[in-house]
Amino acid sequence: MARVGLVAATALGIGGMMGAAPYTMLGLAAPATGSYLPVAFAVAALAAAFPAYSYARLGSTFPSRGGAARFIVEEYGPGLASGGLNVFQFLAYLIAASLYAAGFAAYAQALVGDALPSWTAGAFGVGVVLVFLVVNLFGSRLVGRAETVIVAVEVVILVGFVVLGLSHADPSRLTDGGGRGFLGIVTGAAVLYVSYQGFGVVANASDRMARPGREVPRAMFLALGIVTVLYVTISALAVSLLPMPTIVADNGHVLADAGQVVAGRIGFVVIAVAALLATASAVNATLFAASNIGYFEARHGELSSALARTVGRSGSVALVLSAAVVALLVLLFPLSAVGQMTSLAFLVLYAGVSAGHLRIRARTGAHAWPLIAAVVINVVLFVALLADAIGSGSVGTWATLLAALVGSFAVEAVYIARSDGRGGRRGQVASSTADDAGP
To answer: Cα–Cα distance between 153 and 133 in angstroms, integer?
Structure first.
């Protein structure tokens, strides 16, 4: 089995987090935060640090390609609670992958301008999903190498943008205000929460690490720390370079507009290329995680066992199905909708994992207070974002998310009803956790 080292695991986490926020999420959060957008990024990072602690302890104790899917089973035991949460988690990762694919499509369309008809944006999004479907079929070593190269190129471009942009920035814009005050910052942090959900991808590679007890926490917090610094710096620079109305209006390609302020058309193109690399990287990392979760759930009877069948060198039917669902979501939902849905979904999941962690913290050695803080913070942000979605009339967004949550538990209830008994399912879990690394 190919090993994933600390550098590759950190790159995987960065790739999972860097796909949307600096390129496509800036404009989505700006109406709520106004010029305090960098503060909202910092608040979202602080909120994400607590579930990251939970995931790091769990990943060190239960290394598995299933990541949080394995954690949930360990926390709640086999049954409706763990099964429903795991099915919902599978859907959440698919929604997240569609967000990154939609971001890729938005920048690809902005780069070509009016040269191609508008329907090609969907084709760009579907195309990047298919490319990384093939990449993932070749195995985790190629996934890790691809992430390392993509993240390295992306970071170089962003650092160059920051260095050059400082001479064009107007720091006074950072205190222009706007937005909705403190509540706007909280709502903005809830919107931006999805920007940090990629740290969980590291847990899905834990069984491929030589020393997961050391490498999982280091990779997870290294990735979170690096991305937080970049997010706060880049968002502050964007606010300093662009008027707030422009940030709100051009929410699909804000950073490319900032690049144009710094270096004209060349700056726009370079940042757009970085955005394409970042969003493609996130599709890669998230598709990898989603397929592993689907595989794990199939092995444990929470989804059809057919999903665990091998495809290609090291892929599975779960991988192929994941790619197909992501492609469909790209075609059906706009960027803003999948952005809100993804944040809402992961707020629910991280609260559920952290709450369950309290039940088994004696096995992981985790402290109680960070887990309690994770639950409370996630619930507060979820309520704030849900209220904002309802208040703004985004019925499709929150209704689809809630339907997915209810539907996940309904699917699990059907599997329970059709099973031969809960004892058989417990036996299946016990026998498969030792070898859930898959093909």
So the answer is: 21
The pLDDT of residue 88: 92
Residues 6+ away with beta carbon under 8 Å from 385: 187, 190, 191, 193, 340, 343, 344, 347
The answer, yes or no, to whether residue 438 has pLDDT greater than 50, is no
Phi then psi for residue 310, to 5 deg, are: -75, 140
- Cβ neighbours of residue 196 closer than 8 Å, sequence gap 6 or more: 17, 44, 45, 48, 52, 224, 227, 228
307-319: b or e for each residue (b if 16 or more CB lie within 10 Å)? bbeeeeebbbbbb
Residue 434 pLDDT more than 80? Answer: no
Work out whether the CA dihedral 186, 57, 233, 271 comes out positive or negative. negative
The predicted structure's pLDDT at residue 51: 94
User: Does the domain at residues 6-435 carry the CATH identifier 2.60.120.260?
Assistant: no
d(CA 23, CA 187): 19
Instruction: Give the Cβ contact number of residue 193 at 10 Å.
Output: 30
| Helices and strands, counts by H and E, the chain | 16, 2
Q: CA nearest 349: which of 92, 61, 80, 12?
A: 92
Instruction: Provide the pairing of β-strand 315-316 with 310-311.
Output: antiparallel
